[in-house]
């Protein structure tokens, strides 16, 4: 078997494996919440791995190429150190355990007051005011 045929075979096996995983997980997905956030069953290790994958992608592919183009290929070691230090810190923080709040829980707790006031402001802006004094006093 030639090298080209072996590469094509590996490619088709990989695509077939991805399709099998997709079909297997599609059967487990019942609601939009299951699809979007894994039914809230994703642990800290998977969260850390996915965050680091996104971090590598953004730093190396997007930022690294632009940095190398602008300053030269010899300066890409700066990005490599950034990735190593940044991903290590992210790994330590994100995989510390399930005892801390989740990202969505932290964000909702942090912005609970501002989201309530934004919702109130939207409702007031979409409904016509009964009088100018009631409208101005309710937004201050």
Describe the structure.
The chain crosses the membrane at residues 6-24, 45-69, 75-94. It comes from Eiseniibacteriota bacterium. This is Sodium:solute symporter family protein. Residues 101-140 have a biased composition (Low complexity). Pfam families: SSF (PF00474). With 140 residues, this protein is mostly helical. The N and C termini lie far apart (76 Å). The chain has helices at residues 3-28, 32-37, 44-71, 76-94, 103-110, 112-126, 132-139. 0% of the residues are buried. Helix 3 packs antiparallel against helix 4. The protein is 79% helix and 0% strand. Among the domains are: 1-34; 42-102, no CATH class. The longest helix is centred in the middle third of the chain and has 28 residues, at 44-71. The chain contains seven helices and no strands.
Q: What labels would you give this structure?
A:
single chain, 140 residues, mainly alpha, 79% helix, membrane, ion transport, transport, cell membrane
